[in-house]
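JOB MANIFEST
job_type = single_chain_structure
chain_count = 1
residues = 531
[input]
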Amino acid sequence: MYSRRTFLKITAGIIGLFSGGFILRNSNNQKVNHILASASHEKLALCVSLSKHTSRLELVLDNKIIIKGVQTDRKGTNWQFISNKLLSNHSYKLQLMSEGNSIYKPWNLKTFPSPGTKVENVSIMSFTCAGGPEGFKISGKEFFKPMKFRQKVFDEGLSMNPDFAISIGDHIYWDLRGKNLPQVGRKNKLIKFFLGSYISLVYGSFNRSGNASSLKNEKVLKRIGNEQIASLYGTRFKSTPVFFIPDDHDYFENDDAEEELVTFPADNFSKDIFKKMADLFYPPLLDTPDGQPKRKIGRIRYGDAFEGLMADCAGDMTLGNKNAVLISKQNEEWLLSRIDQSKAETLAFIPSHPFGYTAGKWREWYPDVVAEEGASGTVINELLSGNKGSLTTEVNKYLWQEGWFLQHQRLIKAISQRKGSRFVFSGDIHAIGAVSIIKSGKLKLKTKLKTFLVGPVGSSSAGWPSFARGITAENPENLECESIYKIREENGFTFFSIDNNKVLADVISCGGHNPENEENGKILSRYNFYI
C-alpha cells in the first residue's frame, strides 16, 4: 500500500504529464485576504476574509457608525456586514476593527444617489465567467487563464473608474455532475481516477448527506472559494461596488441534460452549497422586491439615470414543457412590473443567461442544438463530446422546454415596448458580442433591442464554445438580428457610460484565446457606439 504522501507525489506526476500541473494560489500572508463591497442608495454591504481567525470584527463608518460583523464560517475568518439607513450619495470612510485593533488602512465607499434624484452620468463595468482554478490544464489545453491575467483584466476595467461593476455568473467552477468529483476527465477512466483522487486530497470532497455548513463541507467550500474568489479579487474592488448574479456553475453543476444525468433543476444540496459559498465570499443584492438581501433577484438604481434588473436563470428553473421557466414566475412578475413602472431614464435587463445568442447548450431560451448534417429526431449535445456539426432547429434538443422561450417572449415584448432608453446585457456564453434584435419568433419589436455578451474574464483554450461544443456561438434561428460587434471568443468586458440619457457601449477585448500568444490581460482593442 502506498502512503498518502507517496500517492500524492505519484498522482501529481501523472497529472503533470497530462496538464502541466495544477497550480494553487493563496494570499495567507496578508491579514485581510479579500474585501468585496456592494451598495444601494441607503445601504452598504461587505464580505471580508482574513488570514487568521478573530472572535469579533467591526466595520466603522466615518469614525462614528459601528456595524457588527456577522461571522459566516465556523473558524472566524469569513465575515459579512450589512448597514441600514445610511445617507444617499455619500462617500463613507471605512475602517475594519478586529477585537479593538485596526487591521486594514481606512478606505472610502460611496452609497448611490436616491431613486429619482437628478444624475448626469453613471458608468458600469460588466463581465462574466471569472471563476476557475489556477493553471488548470489537460492534455495541453488550458481551461482557465492564470490569476494574473484575470486580475489585469479587472485592473484595466477599474482604471476606467466605473461607479459599480456587475459580475454575471460562474464565479466558481467545480462541477459535480450530481456526484462528489468534478467531471473533467470523464471520457478517460485513468485520467478521471487520478484527477479525481488528487483533487479530493487537495480540496476534499463533499458529504452530500450533510448540509453546507457542516465541518467537512465548509472546509471544501473555503478551499475552493479562497482560490477562485478571495485570491482572485483580493481588495481591488473595496471602493467599487460589485454585484454578483449566479448562474449554473455557482450551483456546482454544468447545465447538462443527457440520458444518464440531468443536472437541473438544482437539488437541495446544490442550492445549499451555492448559498453558503455566496455568504462566505461575496455580498448579497441589497435592492430587492421585498427589501431583504437576496442572491437571485434584485436591481441597481442610480438616481434617475439608471435601473438595472438582475435575474438568476439557473437556481429556480423548472421543467414542464410550456409551463417551464428559467426565472421563477414570482420573480418574472416583479421584473415585468419594474419594466413597466420604472421611471429611470435608462433601463437594462441583466439575466444570467443571454438574450440573442446560442451555443447549442441545453438550458437556453432557444431550441438550437449542434447536429450533424442529415441528423433527425432528438439530439443530445454533450459537453466536450468531440461531436461535429452546426447549430440548427431542424432536430429536437433533448429535454429543451418550450416554456423557456415563451418566458423569453413575455420579457422581450415588455422591454421592447418600454418608452425611453433600454437594452439587455448578460454573460454565460464565453465570448464578446453585440447585436440588435429586430424580430423574435413571430414577435416583431417596435424598435430594435440591443443586447450584449459582456465578455468573459477567465476563459482559455479549452473553455471556448468552439472547443467545448464544436461551434462558435451564433444568433438563434428564430431571431432576426443585425450584427453590431461580431462575436469573438476573447476575454474582456463591456463598459457602459450613461451621460445625459445617452448610453455609450465600449466593447473591450483583452485577448486570451491562445495561451501561447503570451497576452497578459491588457486591453488589445475596443469598439464603442451609442445605444
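[summary]
Residues 4-30 have pLDDT under 50 and may be disordered.
The CA atoms of residues 77 and 144 lie 27 Å apart.
exit_status = 0
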